[in-house]
Amino acid sequence: MSAEDQARILNAGYLEYIRLGATHMLTGYDHLLFLFGVMFFLTRFSEIIKFITAFTIGHSITLVFATLFGITANYYLIDAVIALTVCYKAFDNLGGFQKHLQMKSPNLTWMVFAFGLIHGFGLSTRLQQLPLGDDGLVFKILSFNVGVEVGQIVALSIMLAVLMVWRKTASFERFSKASNVGLMLAGGLLLLMQLHGFQHTQYPDDFPLNRDDHQHTHEDMADKKAPLSSYPRRLELRGPSADTEGEEPAEQASEPEVHRHEDGEPHSH
């Protein structure tokens, strides 16, 4: 979450946390790719409900409890593991276990549940980047989780509609293998991107820019594509207080804020 997102959520109500959760799910390419892989060959409604329920229970557990108890990790590393879940599902869809490992595929229900736990932990690491505070923390987390479920339902509805129409055409048989190969490549690309970001946070001195400039470059990039970039600003300028009446207001906005990145030295800009 960018510094702009953190500022905009300061006075947010529960509805905005729902909107944030839905937005994060609908813009979370790794989550969507995994769900697309799970849904790809499912045709029976009962199977769809079973697997999506397992995934929902899994990510709800880690999202709620990891955020509530402040359990976190490097989010690049968690997202890298999530990218691997996309590769796994594509490999499974391609019959990789039978063809290359000469074994049956692991139980899909339990695997989807386990991967849901990982995806939920990834959502939690992002949510914990916001200034949640202590007041109404549980309801904020639950509101965010409700938003995630809303976004998931919207995404799944679109996927189901597309797959139902596509399965009725001859191209589905011809391109189903290519689609899952593409899914695996997309997961691999996401994995490399997240590992690259992890290297930035762990070994900043190995890159051409210094630590702070390098970090700010990525923060600027994140600001432009942040899911909350279209949110209305909630911060209000404070008016002059009674004991400063008649005096010109101080130009507080021009004063640089002292901060630091990861374990770097405190600094301002």
Profile the largest sheet. Answer: none
How many DSSP helices? 10
Beta-strand fraction estimate: under 5%
Counted up, domains total 1
The topology string of helices and strands comes to HHHHHHHHHH
Q: Structural class, from secondary structure content?
A: mainly alpha
Name the average pLDDT. 83
| Uncertain spans | 228-246, 248-254
Structure summary, number of beta strands: 0
- Based on CA atoms alone, the radius of gyration comes out at 22 Å
Q: What's the N-to-C terminus distance? A: 20 Å
Please state the overall shape, judged from the principal axes of the Cα atoms: globular
- Measured as a percent range, the helix fraction is 55-70%
Region (Disordered): 206-269
Pfam families: HupE_UreJ_2
Transmembrane segments: 20-42, 49-69, 75-95, 107-124, 144-166, 178-198
Biased composition (Basic and acidic residues): 208-226, 256-269
